[in-house]
Amino acid sequence: MWESLPYSLLLRVLSHLSAKDICRCGCVCVSWSIAADDELLWRRKFQRDWKVDRSVPIVEGALWKSEYRRLYYEAPVVESEVLLEHSHQVLHVSFSHDGTCFASCSKDGHVKLWSASYPASVTHSRNMRDLSWNYTQFSQFNESDTLLLVSGVHFGTHTASGEIAVFNLKEGFVLQCRVLNKPYDIFGTWYTDHYLLSGRLHFLGHMLSCSAIWLNKAWQESESEKKPIVKQMFKFLNINASSVRTILVANCEQSCSRGNPVPDPCSSQDDDDTDEDSADVDDPLDPREKLLIFTTGSLTYAPHQVGFKRIRPFRFAEPGEPPTLLERLARQQEERRDPPDPFEQSFDVIDHLVDLHGHIIGMGLSPDHRFLYVNSRPWPKDYVIEQPLSPPPIAQEIDIHVIDLATMKEVGNLLRSHRAYTPNDECFFIFLDVSDKYVASGAEDRKGYLWDRHYSVCLAKLPHSDVVNAVAFNPKDPEMLVTASDDFSLKVWRSRAKVRELQLPPRDYHVEKADGDPSKSYDGAGPSASSKGWDTA
C-alpha cells in the first residue's frame, strides 16, 4: 500500500519529516528513493529549516539536497580540541596558506606556531617580552609560508608604539627582521613574499598628523651598502585626530586606470652596472597591480571609513649618490630658517573612500581578493558629530559589510548576529575571516559566529567563556576553523564529516546550534555519510 502512494501525496508526507528521516525513507524502494531526491521537496526543506529567504537562488550548479547536506554536515561547527598553552588572553590566530600550521598571539607576550593536524600541538614558541614587547597582537604568513610576520605593542601605560618581527619558518623559527610600527594598530602586512608594509605617525599640529606607509625588506641586506631595505610608499594627511590603521593589501586581477604609481626615486642606472644588476633593478617588485586598504576617518578619531589606494607595479630601485655632508648641513639650516608648512607638503590622495557610519573593528579579504568584509558597530541614525574627540555612541550589534573591490560598492546582505558591549573609548578589535563558502567572526558575547556566504544565514554559535577576539579558517580545509578568546584558550572546530572521519567519541566534542540550525542537538548520529540519501546528494 505504501509503495503505491501517489507521488504528490508521498512528497507531502516527506515534507513533514526531518532531513535524516527523508534520507532513510529513500532506502525503502525505488519510487520512494525518487521522491526523497525531489528538488522541490529539498528546496522547501532547505528554505524552511535554514531560514533562507525564498528570493535567494541556489548556488550555481548545486542541488538543494547537496546544499542542505553541506550546511549541516560540512560546516565547521563541532568543537574537536581546546588548546590551553597560552597564559593570558588570546588576541589573534592566522593560518598558513598551505593549511599545515597556524599562529596565535596573546597578551602573555608569546607568539606560538601550531601544527594543524589532529590533535593540534605547539611546534615553536617565542616570548616577545624579551624584546621589550608588552604583548603580541597580530600575525600573517607570507605567500610561500616561509616567513611569519608578527605585530606587537611595546611596553608603556599609554604607548601607541609597536613593532613588527619576522620569523624564518624554514630555519627553526629564527628572528630575521624587526621594524618599528606606529601606531601599533596599523598591524602591518605582507606586500610581496619578501617585503612588508609598516606605518609611522608624525604629528603636525592640533588634531593634525601624517601617516607614512613604509615598504621594508624582510631581512637586513649584507651584500652591498647601496642596496635599499626601506622605501616610503605613501604619506596621508590625517585630520580631526584620525589616523591610518589596519592596513591590508589585495591583489587586483584587473588593472585600473585610477590611482597613481608609487614614485620611483631612481629612473636610471650607472653605465658601469652589470647586466644582472640592471635586470634586478628594472624588474618590478611585483608584476601584479595591488590595492592598499586601510581604515581611517574624517569626522572623528574613530575609524569609520575604509580607504583604498591603487598601487601599480614599481621598482625598488637602488638609491642615487647620497648628498655630501655640506649639502645636508645646508639643507638643515634652510629648514630651520623657514620650517615647511604642513599643508604645503606633498601628501598622497586616497583614491576612494567608503564611509560605513560606524566604528570599524575588523576587516578581512575573501580568498580571491574580490570582496572585503568589514566588522563595524554602527552609529545612531542621523548622527551629528560636533566634536572630533567625542564620536557618537556605538551600537551593541556588529554589522558585517561586504564591499566589491571591483566596483567599490557595498553588495550582498548585511550580516548581523554577533554583539559587542564596550563603549567607544574601550572598543577593541574583533577579527573576522572568510573562506570560499563561509564567513566567521568573533564577538563580545562569548561566542564565535559562522555564516554561509551565499545564503547569509547564521549556521552556528561557537561558545567560549569570554570574548572571542579572532577566528581563522584553514585555507586548504574549509571544514576546520580556529577561534581565539579572552578565556586564554584557542578552540578548534571541525565539520561533522571530519569528526566522523577522525572517529572522535561524542563525549569529546560539543556543538551549540544557531537559530537557523535544523538539528536540535548533535549526538554523533546525524545523517550518516554512508547513508544512501547523502551518497546521492
What does the model show?
- Helix 1 packs across helix 3 and helix 4 (39-49) packs parallel to helix 5.
- The two termini are 28 Å apart.
- The model is unreliable at 254-279 and 520-537 (pLDDT under 50).
- This protein has helices at residues 7-14, 19-25, 30-36, 39-49, 64-74, 275-282, 325-337, 496-502, 532-535; strands at 76-83, 90-95, 101-106, 110-115, 121-127, 133-141, 147-154, 162-168, 174-181, 189-190, 195-205, 208-217, 230-238, 245-251, 290-296, 305-311, 352-355, 358-365, 371-378, 397-404, 409-410, 415-419, 432-434, 438-441, 447-452, 458-463, 468-474, 477-485, 490-495.
- The chain is 14% helix and 36% strand.
- The chain has two domains: 2-72 and 530-535, Monooxygenase, CATH 1.20.1280; 75-504, Methylamine Dehydrogenase, Chain H, CATH 2.130.10.10.
- Strands 18, 19, 20, 21 and 22 form a five-stranded antiparallel beta sheet that branches. A four-stranded antiparallel beta sheet has the order 1-29-28-27. Strands 2-3-4-5 form a four-stranded antiparallel beta sheet, with no helix packed on it.
- With 537 residues, the protein is mainly beta.
- A hairpin with a 5-residue loop joins strand 4 (110-115) and strand 5 (121-127).
- The radius of gyration is 26 Å and the shape is elongated.
